[in-house]
Amino acid sequence: MGRKSHITLLASTCSLLENGHSKDALANCESVLEDEASSPYERWVAYSLGTIAARQLGDWGKRTHYENEAAGIQIRTPELLDEYNVHRALTLKTAELTRRYVTANFDEANQEALEMANRGAELAMAGQSQAAGRLLRRAVELDPKCELAHFNLGLYAYHALRDFQLCAQCMRKVLELNPHNEGAKQALNVLRSEGHLA
């Protein structure tokens, strides 16, 4: 499958998810992931959308695996920021669906912080770095126990600010809140391998 057809397939996967066709959506994601020629961006979208489909189908093992893989790609692939802008419509649709999925699964106390954390990530993907930073910091202040807010702030610190100490601080906080967050573990491993941490 070629690059253009991966992007087309992933765009149609968004529509499938919106219309409740989770099984077909998951099959599309798996098709992209099985192709070794898939780019890191395409894999990120497939894992992100696959997370939603797997959750809707009640496949918690696959949901967790896909969620962790999507987070890992975000931290291991700095050039992803360029791809976000090349395929802006698909990036924003993926972020919107992810935001809907995440906020639907948390209690009211965290809703505003989760919305800010997701919106901040969307703004960062759209290249609006300053606005993204403000929202992500505000999300952490609003709910210091919001794992997603710390994680997204860490990604922002890594990619946009190149502030590796802030990234490490955020990822350590994520692991304090959830010791099983594989994305945060991968982020710290990347920071160590790049020589940013002792």
What is the domain total for the residues? 2
CATH superfamily of the largest domain: Tetratricopeptide repeat domain
What pattern of helices and strands is seen along the backbone? HHHHHHHHHHH
Computed Rg: 16 Å
Structural class: mainly alpha
- In whole angstroms, the N-to-C terminal distance is 42 Å
CATH architecture of the largest domain: Alpha Horseshoe
Q: Per the principal axes of the C-alpha atoms, what is the gross shape?
A: globular
Model description:
By secondary structure, the protein is mainly α. It has two domains: 1-84, no CATH class; 106-191, Tetratricopeptide repeat domain (Serine Threonine Protein Phosphatase 5, Tetratricopeptide repeat). Helix content is 80%, strand content 0%. The protein has helices spanning 3-18, 22-34, 40-56, 60-76, 80-86, 88-103, 108-125, 129-142, 147-161, 164-177, 182-193. The mean pLDDT is 87.
